[in-house]
């Protein structure tokens, strides 16, 4: 399924179509504030496993990331101290992934690595989907070998490539080619492990 959703004022009926796919364990490709990404209901283990298989991700060796609507329920999914929370509040919503230690609320597949990436993108479409779903969304950018291919910024071309792989592709306009900045907050001091689109406000 290929649907158009406008980022200025997402149509609730279109959002509901996405929610139905996610609740049924489906996979969706959607825009973020960085690159287009593939995701599913983060608490649906079978859907998470399906994405890991498609992307060749080993959860024991690779960090999994989830998108939350805002910071209000971050502590359900990750352990966050006051200093880290303040840092996140300064920079989110935005093009950042914060690596935090997991909590017991996340399914076991996340616990192999003992850490989870937290995203709150500055993109109305995906945040509205997360809000309506009521669960975070597992997210992984659609790219290969850590190189974002420029043709993967065009939703119609993305749909041509992935229509037989995922259950829905959302056209939310052209995407970017630069990933998020990754900040590891699992130790005493936060460390930027990948400089991406976001410039951190310390």
UniProtKB/TrEMBL annotation:
It holds the Pfam family Sua5_yciO_yrdC. SUPFAM superfamilies: YrdC/RibB. InterPro entries: DHBP_synth_RibB-like_a/b_dom, Sua5-like_dom, SUA5_domain. Residues 12-198 form the YrdC-like domain. One of its GO terms (molecular function) is double-stranded RNA binding. It comes from the Bacteria. Gene3D superfamilies: DHBP synthase. This is tRNA threonylcarbamoyl adenosine modification protein, Sua5/YciO/YrdC/YwlC family. It comes from Dysgonomonas macrotermitis.
